[in-house]
Design a protein that fits this description.
alpha/beta, Rossmann fold, Dihydrodipicolinate Reductase, domain 2, 2 domains, six-stranded parallel β-sheet, 12 helices, about 40% helix, about 25% strand, globular
């Protein structure tokens, strides 16, 4: 049994709690929050120990893994403290808000021989796993271009729930907060970005960061990319999508959360073979993405492996966000 401690008991902590409950070898041993009331449900449901003081939680020898679910701007300090205390770290996205903090987290975990996983759970969706297999097999041939789109809604009430939302110091905008999962998929599927041109704007919400962004990219492979991210969509979340166009294949994965093939054509594959791939992609995901990450952490601890989504992956997604923002600010 591996003991997990949830740090920050807001909205996202509930996803971690549900995920841990899915795994036989995982236990919600403790929770930590400055607000006592936020910890009550975990104490009642899981008999979790409660800590108002993070330093005291880190002194508990029974805590093995710390799940950091606090506002993004706090991630670096909390993750580094956990690493120095010898605790393995599962870090919500984005892993940090700047490259230095991301590097400091990675170095602290390496120096203290603890595992670091960053929560990018979309990689575990069946449709995206099938697409990754096809790309790695070379079935699409040379890629022409890829589109990555997030068209969601975050209304005034969302940003009013907490003063840190939409702030530069604690949160970031649509790229850092909402679209970073899609950008992680973009890099996972296509590899590194080489050049960027971008525009960002704050159209509707009274926040410090952007609520809409568009960018065009070139990848080191030579392929082109189009990125669109918005929380300005009326009246609710519309879609998240990944579309890939190659000389021998086309794939469009769409849905509110990019989880089903809308179109798939691959040279040399029969309708029956395409149907099998689509059926595999439609298979109900056995566990949540968070649960896969938590289960992977348990395996990494027992077998001394590196997490499937590690610190470098988290840093790559962060760097792409920062590069888009810089490209937009340059106005070139």
């Amino acid at each position: 049994m591996v003991n997990f401690a949830l740090v920050g008991c807001g909205f996202i902590a509930n996803k971690h709690s549900e995920a841990i409950s899915e795994i036989e070898d995982a236990c919600i041993y403790a929770v930590c929050d400055k607000i006592e009331q936020n910890m009550v449900p975990y104490k009642e449901k899981h008999s979790a120990l409660t800590y108002n003081d993070y330093d005291l939680l880190l002194q508990d020898p029974n805590v093995q893994v710390v799940n950091i679910c606090t506002p993004s701007g706090t991630h670096a300090a909390l993750a580094i403290k956990a690493a120095k205390a010898g605790k393995h770290v599962i870090l919500e996205k984005p892993m940090a808000l700047n490259e230095k903090d991301a590097n400091d987290i990675i170095l602290a975990c390496r120096a203290n021989n603890v595992k670091l996983a960053v929560v990018h759970p979309n990689r575990f969706r069946p449709a995206l796993i099938e697409l990754k297999k096809l790309l790695e097999s070379g079935a699409f041939g040379t890629i022409s271009h890829i589109n990555a789109t997030v068209r969601w809604n975050r209304d005034k009430a969302y940003y009013s729930q907490a003063p840190w939302r939409g702030s530069r110091a604690m949160d970031g905008g649509v790229l850092m907060n909402q679209a970073i999962h899609n950008l992680d998929l973009l890099l996972w599927l296509m590899g590194p970005v080489e050049q960027l041109k971008a525009f960002t704007s704050t159209r509707y919400r009274e926040i410090e960061c952007e609520d809409v962004a568009v960018a065009i990219a070139t990848f080191k492979s030579g392929a082109l990319g189009v990125i669109e991210a918005a929380t300005t969509i009326y009246p609710k979340n519309l879609e998240e999508s990944i579309s890939i166009f190659g000389e021998k294949g086309t794939a469009v994965i769409r849905g509110v959360h990019a989880n089903e093939f809308e179109h798939l054509s691959v040279e040399g594959l029969s309708e029956e073979q395409i149907g099998k791939i689509k059926n595999a992609a439609m298979t109900t995901q056995q566990k949540s993405g968070h649960a896969y990450i938590i289960e992977d952490m348990i395996n990494c601890i027992s077998q001394d492996n590196e997490p499937l989504v590690g610190g470098e992956d988290g840093k790559n997604a962060l760097e792409l966000v920062l590069a888009i923002t810089k490209a937009a600010e340059s106005k070139i």
